[in-house]
Amino acid sequence: MSEEEMCDLSIIIVNWNTRGLLRKCLRSIYNNTKKLTFEVFVIDNASRDGSVEMVKKEFPQARLARNKENLGFARGNNQGFLQTKGKYVLVLNPDTEVIDDAFLKMVEYLKSNKEVGAVGPRFIYPDGTFQRYYHRFPTFISILTTWFLPRSMAYKLRPTRAYLMLDDDFSKVIEVPQPAGSCLMVRRGLFSEEDFMDEQFPIFFNDVDLCRRIYKKGLKIFVLPEAEIVHYKGKGGSEQGKKSFFLAGEYFISMIDYFSKHEGAVKVDLLRILISLGFLIRILVFSIGYICRVKTKEEFGNETTRFDIFLWRKSAFERKPMQEVER
């Protein structure tokens, strides 16, 4: 692709049943993104809430792809990435709103800092308060303290605090190994010879893996405090998915796969045992609760189903191994 054929920015939004939020997101993009040439791709994963019809009617300038089934976040982004013409590519969740010229500031930072592979914004809640949604890469110890201890205890421990970046100052430009994939701008050229997102991670940990691969290319990732994005955390498709008993199992399958790819067999085996023990303890607690009539039969059944999904890897999505993209 020649320089003349390229635009400044390609924005990919993977949508699943978030029509109202998607409308706000698209409106904010077109109202606030100035001084940039850009294109928007909406990849709809078989929504049933009228999202497709809304985009067609209200945002005809957006390029819309409608999938017949929910292909997941990674495949949806890859689907959009193959069509992009931007020098930079932005992964954007539909539960976000752009404030002022945030995207322009992110593009200009990447243009001026060749050692940086990606940038993220400062996330804020709808009321304007800061949303701390940033991580360092997970380690065996940080996952252990963060996921297997009560929050009141975990948040006092150094591995958890370092992993969640609880003591870092986000009022200035700061290196963040893994900003949330809710809004992440990358250099398109980094992924010209390989899949953009690894489809081993259909919903969860694909952004963690993406950032890890950027670092393996010798580049860094930064967050810009002057580029602000409203994030309705917990309202997007993947965040809602964490609350379903089926995708809760999917989350831990992806965690195991991430450690298998990046951390080695011993840690993976230990993590698999610990997660299994965690599920068994929860099942025991829920069974006692059911006997004592504190928990319902449905709640007990959901816990056993989660464990069954994790144990036997009953994934809701096709998990395609990483392959080179044919050009």
Descriptive account of the structure:
With 327 residues, the chain is of the alpha/beta class. It has two domains: 3-132 and 170-232, Spore Coat Polysaccharide Biosynthesis Protein SpsA, Chain A, CATH 3.90.550.10; 244-311. 42% of the residues lie in helices and 20% in strands. The protein is built from twelve helices and eleven strands. The protein has helices at 19-32, 51-58, 73-81, 102-112, 140-147, 151-154, 158-163, 206-216, 237-242, 245-262, 265-291, 297-311; strands at residues 7-15, 38-45, 63-67, 86-92, 96-98, 116-124, 134-135, 174-175, 178-179, 183-187, 220-231. The strands form two sheets. Strands 1, 2, 3, 4, 5, 6, 8, 10 and 11 form a nine-stranded mixed β-sheet that branches. Strands 7-9 form a two-stranded antiparallel sheet. Helix 10 (245-262) packs antiparallel against helix 11 (265-291). It is globular and about 65 Å long. Mean pLDDT is 91; it is low at 238-243 and 322-327.
Short structural summary:
With 327 residues, the protein is α/β, with parallel strands linked by helices. The protein has helices at residues 19-32, 51-58, 73-81, 102-112, 140-147, 151-154, 158-163, 206-216, 237-242, 245-262, 265-291, 297-311; strands spanning 7-15, 38-45, 63-67, 86-92, 96-98, 116-124, 134-135, 174-175, 178-179, 183-187, 220-231. The protein is globular.
